[in-house]
Amino acid sequence: MAGTLVRGLSVLAHLERLETRMHRSRKKLEEPQTVQAEETALVTEIQKLRRLRDKLRAEVKRRQAGVKASTANVEPDQTWEITEQEVLERKWENLKAILQAYRFTGLSGRLTSRGVCVCISTAFEGNLLDSYFMDLTMQKPLRIHRHSVPVFIPLEELSAKYLETNIQHFLFTVCEYLNAYSGRKYQADRLQSDFAAFLAGPLQRNSLCNLLSFTYKVEPRGQSFPLCARLLYKDLTRTLPTDVTVTYQGMDALSTSWEEQRASQENLFRTKPLHHVFTSFARKGEMLDMSLVS
Amino acid sequence: MDETVAEFFKRTILKIPMTEMMTILKAWGFLSENQLQTVNFRQRKESLVQDLVLLCEKKRASLNDAAILDIVYTQFHRHQKVWDVFRMSREPGEDIDLFDMEQFKRSFKKILQRALKNVTISFRDAEENAVWIRIAWGSQYRKPNQYRPVYVVYYSQTPYAFTSSSQLRSNIPLLGQALTIASKHHQIMKMDLRSRYLDSLKAIVFKQYNQTFETHNSTTPLQERSLGLDINMDSRIIHENRIEKERVQRVTQETFGYYPQPRLEFAQYKLETKFKSDLNGGILAEREEPLRCLIKFSSPHLLEALKALAPAGIADAPLSPLLTCIPNKGMNYFKIRDK
């Protein structure tokens, strides 16, 4: 009987198995119908999804086209923003350049934490020469904190007189002094460098270039007599001498023609800048050479 | 050639280091290139000096030529002398200074020679319209001592003259007088400023030491350089007192600026002050007479050393104005008394 029990259990299990088999076979008989139904259902589903997909695609395309069209309208706005920034930048660069170029007016300045830094740019006959600076403190009393003006320019004197009372006059006067000094220095430098051939000895000068003394010849290689010139610039705001003395070296009494020549030389130095006088000597020499050749 | 002159030549040339011999002889300009080429510069110094002295004799070199060589040597070795600074002044409203170098030299020589029969005066023009003057002093009965000369450096149309310190103090008033009259000034006084570095003295009195100015052309702001304190160097390092350190840096930069300081070797303070104490009582507090003491700060480069004090943490910032006023006031000798 034990085997039968076991068999009984397995019989039950067997019966279960048979039952499920039966169900399956029944299902298989039914399947074509359900399958078909399921198939058709799926097919319709697929078709539905496809239709939806096409619809969405069309919508995307439409919107893209619409966006493109609208960006065609929006673009001018964006480029307008760019140019505004560019315009501002260009304005900024322009202003900086103008401030830098102000130097060429001769008198310019820049605000500092303490006050203002004034820049005096000197020039002579269109040549830009040295620049000098003064750092002013905007306090009472107004004073020069530091500067690069040479020590032989009477800056203390001028500032004592005008800095507190009339700053404009002070600045213009210092400009005058510095420009005149630069101009005199320029002339003396030109003489020493460009016309050394005309000088019979070294050019004697001083810090302010307001006393020049030299011996020269009108023709560098010629037979002409050496002349001694002494130029005094008593007015420190001018670039032409106030006193000129020209003498023939070692000769006191002169004949009339020589005296005329001497006087005309003096006049030349009094009226023309130093290096121009020597340029005219050089030109006369060239003309003489040319006449000799021809 | 006179024996003393030959000896003077010998000793002057002997002073010159071999490495500089050619440069200095060329700067002197008395012996031409060709003549210098005839001399063997590779021999022992004593023999070289002998050859050179012979050459000078042949060329009839004078005492003045030797003096000029001495000036050239001193120009190359200006740090070997200690320089004093004199300031001259004239009455206000005077005529424009039409400085004539030749006239100045003539006048200077005349004044000294009128007062002292025995004196050697030599001139050498230098750059920036300056002149170096060498003076060898003698006396009524003695010839000038060529081995203890005084040098004067004068920049035309300025009120300042620089003189090498000399033991022979008695002639200084005469020297001052000659300088004043020859340069058309009225008064002269000695400044409380002294150093071996002639160029630094010039920078201080001509106020040429602080020459960076803010212009529209300079793009970098001046505040970027630090005193070696790179706070952001390593993130593993934490700086305590960062705010205080930055404050000290800022104050130091404001006082000393961004430029290289002129070079001085010392600052001397002579104090004549009464003792001041917070504590009441004590022997010194009762003392009526002022205490006298001398404080001297020495350094190979005093102003740079002072500038480094506060950032190094050795002193508080800002430093005492007695220390920071040195270049501004043009003084490194101070006398401090109770007011």
UniProtKB/TrEMBL annotation, chain A:
<keyword id="KW-0158">Chromosome</keyword>
<dbReference type="GO" id="GO:0005634">
    <property type="term" value="C:nucleus"/>
</dbReference>
<dbReference type="InterPro" id="IPR018464">
    <property type="entry name" value="CENP-O"/>
</dbReference>
<dbReference type="Pfam" id="PF09496">
    <property type="entry name" value="CENP-O"/>
</dbReference>
<dbReference type="GO" id="GO:0031511">
    <property type="term" value="C:Mis6-Sim4 complex"/>
</dbReference>
<keyword id="KW-0539">Nucleus</keyword>
<comment type="similarity">
    <text>Belongs to the CENP-O/MCM21 family.</text>
</comment>
<keyword id="KW-0137">Centromere</keyword>
<protein>
    <recommendedName>
        <fullName>Centromere protein O</fullName>
    </recommendedName>
</protein>
TrEMBL record, chain B:
<dbReference type="GO" id="GO:0034080">
    <property type="term" value="P:CENP-A containing chromatin assembly"/>
</dbReference>
<protein>
    <submittedName>
        <fullName>Centromere protein N</fullName>
    </submittedName>
</protein>
<dbReference type="InterPro" id="IPR007902">
    <property type="entry name" value="Chl4/mis15/CENP-N"/>
</dbReference>
<dbReference type="InterPro" id="IPR052011">
    <property type="entry name" value="CENP-NAC/CAD_complex"/>
</dbReference>
<keyword id="KW-0539">Nucleus</keyword>
<dbReference type="GO" id="GO:0005654">
    <property type="term" value="C:nucleoplasm"/>
</dbReference>
<dbReference type="GO" id="GO:0000939">
    <property type="term" value="C:inner kinetochore"/>
</dbReference>
<dbReference type="GO" id="GO:0007059">
    <property type="term" value="P:chromosome segregation"/>
</dbReference>
<comment type="similarity">
    <text>Belongs to the CENP-N/CHL4 family.</text>
</comment>
<dbReference type="Pfam" id="PF05238">
    <property type="entry name" value="CENP-N"/>
</dbReference>
<keyword id="KW-0137">Centromere</keyword>
<keyword id="KW-0158">Chromosome</keyword>
